[in-house]
Specification:
The protein is of the alpha+beta class. It has helices at residues 52-81, 88-170, 176-181, 186-284, 295-310, and strands at 2-8, 329-336, 376-379, 385-387, 392-399, 406-414, 420-428, 430-431, 438-439, 444-447, 458-465, 468-470.
Length: 477
């Protein structure tokens, strides 16, 4: 039966990214807070849903706890420094301090991200309300001008009407009947009657006009009052939004200043930790990896290695591998079934990767500081033989400037549970095999070294089951 493997010549790998099946990792991690909003028609609030205010309270509490931990770490460092900095305890405490600062930076950056989201939502609302306010302002101004014109017109009509009332008042007892009875003849009677009727009609029309103008003015005034009220409400809302925006922008600036300050401290502490660790491992020859590495780089490296493992076609699968959408992959020629194991726990009987060098400088799954470590480190002189822990096929050979430096990955087949078994050998000075090579158990595949993220010559060794790291010590003999 033939076996086909899909391998990559561009895959890199991380020693630090958490992906192990062990639950005893004691490194401290930041608690993520999820804010959930409920829909208006929701009748029941789930117990695990919290408001944004409650989430902020939790973050503030966490920040306070981190500040307390930082203070304790600083105090302990000051005490340890009195004897010597080049000690495991001092370096571990310094790394714990670095971890606390990293957690604080994560919280601050998440806060800034959340605040910026609020700002991004607030700005369009402010712009929209500003337009509404501008429109209301124009309407108020237009209505006021119209009202002023009506007032001017009303005043002239009202003055004319008042003049007529004044004339009538000055005439005293004179009335229409007296005016008609004092006529000397019918002709003058008719003439005076027409004059009186004309004046009366004019007065009636004048009064009617006064009333109509008054009603128009009252209506217009009511409309103005309504618009002014809307304007005041919109302006108040807009002012509140602008105040909120200023507050959030100030908070981002405040957080950014703290972030910059803590990053400067972090850079200094990381450099000191790396320097002290290099001195310590040089003294005791217990070489391992530097612990302060770029998380994004490690994540990228881990993603690549997971893609590589996902492309493996085990013996019990089809013999033709399909690379799919994974870029930069090459197909390894078919190999005989005897080159790898198929559903057999015999694959788990492995030898130490560096013969005669079995002491461990850093174990699985943590360094002494509690930080995650995905394998075990075997200190050994540069140029020592690095051998295949079990028979298999080489699926990756890579040379990284950081991370694992020059490393080799070997696929050994599947265990009794059907899990793919892969080993990794890192920090080599020279690699003696190529992707696609078939290797035997104990065969020399590389020369040890200190390439990549390394404090000195050693072999970093890992075992993965279906891509998940496990404790290598359980399978070495």
């Amino acid at each position: 039966m033939a076996v086909t493997v899909v391998a990559s010549s561009t895959v890199s790998f991380s020693a630090y990214a958490k992906n192990d099946e062990s639950k005893d990792n004691t490194s401290e991690t930041t608690t993520a807070v999820t804010v959930v909003t409920t829909s208006p028609d929701s009748n029941k609030q789930d117990s695990d849903k919290i408001t944004k205010e409650e989430a902020q309270e939790m973050l503030d509490k966490q920040q306070n706890e981190l500040e307390e931990n930082l203070a304790l770490a600083e105090q302990k460092l000051a005490e340890l420094e009195k004897s010597s900095k080049v000690t495991v305890e001092y370096i571990d405490t310094l790394d714990q301090k670095i971890g606390y600062i990293n957690e604080q930076l994560t919280i601050l950056e998440e806060q800034n991200f959340s605040i910026q989201e609020d700002i991004d939502k607030l700005i369009p609302s402010i712009e929209k309300n500003q337009k509404v306010l501008d429109e209301l302002s124009k309407e108020v101004e237009t209505t006021r001008k119209e009202l002023d014109k009506l007032q001017t017109k009303f005043e002239s009509v009202y003055e004319a009407y008042c003049y007529r009332l004044k004339v009538m008042y000055v005439s005293g007892d004179f009335n229409i009947l007296t005016a008609l009875l004092t006529c000397k003849d019918i002709s003058s009677f008719l003439t005076r009657y027409e004059m009186i009727r004309s004046v009366s009609k004019s007065d009636t029309e004048l009064l009617k006009e006064v009333q109509e103008q008054t009603e128009i003015i009252v209506t217009k005034q009511d409309g103005l009052d309504e618009r002014v009220a809307k304007y005041e409400t919109a302006k108040k809302q807009l002012d509140e939004q602008k105040a909120t925006l200023d507050e959030k922008q100030d908070k981002i600036e405040e957080n950014s200043a703290v972030i910059a300050q803590k990053k400067a401290i972090l850079a200094t502490d990381r450099a000191e930790s790396d320097s002290l660790l290099a001195q310590l491992t040089a003294q005791n020859k217990q070489y391992t990896e530097f612990r302060n590495v770029d998380k994004e780089l490690l994540e990228a490296v881990e993603n690549e290695i997971q893609q590589l493992i996902a492309g493996i076609k085990s013996p019990d699968e089809i013999t033709t591998a399909v690379a799919g959408d994974i870029d930069d992959y090459v197909s390894v020629p078919e190999i005989n079934e005897s080159d790898v194991y198929s559903k057999s726990d015999a694959v788990l009987n492995m030898v130490y990767p560096v013969p005669k060098h079995t002491s461990i400088s850093a174990g699985y799954p943590n360094y002494s500081s509690g930080q995650y470590h995905g394998g075990i480190d075997f200190p050994c002189p540069t140029g020592s033989n690095v051998v295949a822990a079990q028979k298999g096929i080489v699926i990756a050979v890579k040379n990284l400037e950081d991370s694992y430096g020059k490393y080799v990955m070997i696929y050994h087949g599947t265990d009794k549970k059907g899990r793919s078994v892969v080993t990794l050998y890192a920090h080599n000075s020279n690699i003696l095999v190529s992707a696609g090579d078939s290797v035997k158990k104990g065969q020399v595949i590389a020369k040890s070294g200190s390439t990549g993220n390394s404090t000195g010559p050693h072999c970093h060794f890992e075992i993965r089951f279906d891509g998940v790291r496990s404790n290598p010590k359980n399978y070495l003999s």
